[in-house]
Write a structure and sequence with these properties.
Layout (H helix, E strand, L loop, with lengths): L2 H12 L3 E2 L1 E5 L6 E5 L2 E5 L6 E7 L3 H9 L1 E6 L5 H8 L7 H6 L3 E3 L5 E3 L4 E13 L2 E13 L6 E4 L2 E4 L8
Antiparallel strand pairs: 1-11, 2-3, 2-6, 4-5, 5-10, 6-9, 7-8, 9-10, 11-12
């Protein structure tokens, strides 16, 4: 791949606003979390609703999620930018334990870390995964959902945090 193609790809993808989430896990492989922007629903139907998350193969969180077999996708509220930066590694912290200590957490029914104040948290069992070049593509079966009273999700696009604004009447 040429560096020009890579740069054009990065610029093109930066123009797509997406919500920000922190994927967390806790179990035999440890308690880890990482900020992700590659999270999407797969289906609301089937045996259970499902979602897909992509994690860099060198991320300790990716390895822990695959070993633990469970995770929680915490969709950040628009006032949780610092949490995003913290779990993205943009803030200097000693280790993963300190990252978790800087936010309030609850445990879902399967014991996964659910971020208090997140606009939505989806506890999942790993259904399948596959390596793809530099990332793991993980599909999770949703086992529980926790919704906050505020649906205002943190967005990221054009290399900056954003918030959604309503442009007109809803459909």
């Amino acid at each position: 791949m040429t560096s020009d193609l890579r740069m054009q790809f990065l610029e093109g993808m930066s123009r797509a606003a997406t919500f920000v989430a922190v994927a967390t896990t806790d179990g035999d492989a440890g308690r880890f979390g990482v900020t992700v922007s590659s999270l999407t629903s797969v289906s609301a139907d089937g045996d259970a609703p499902s979602l897909l998350v992509c994690l860099h193969h060198l991320s300790p969180a990716a390895s822990a999620i695959l070993t633990n077999g469970t995770f929680c996708a915490n969709l950040l509220h628009e006032d949780q930018r610092e949490i995003s930066d913290l779990f993205a590694g943009r803030l200097a912290v000693a280790d993963h334990t300190e990252r978790f200590a800087r936010a309030a957490w609850s445990h879902g029914p399967q014991g996964q870390p659910m971020l208090d104040g997140a606009t939505a948290s989806f506890e999942c069992e790993v259904a399948t995964s596959m390596p793809w070049e530099t990332h793991h593509i993980i599909v999770g079966r949703v086992t529980s959902v926790r919704l906050s009273e505020s649906p205002a999700a943190l967005l990221y696009g054009q290399r900056a945090y954003r918030r959604a604004v309503q442009l007109g009447s809803t459909i």
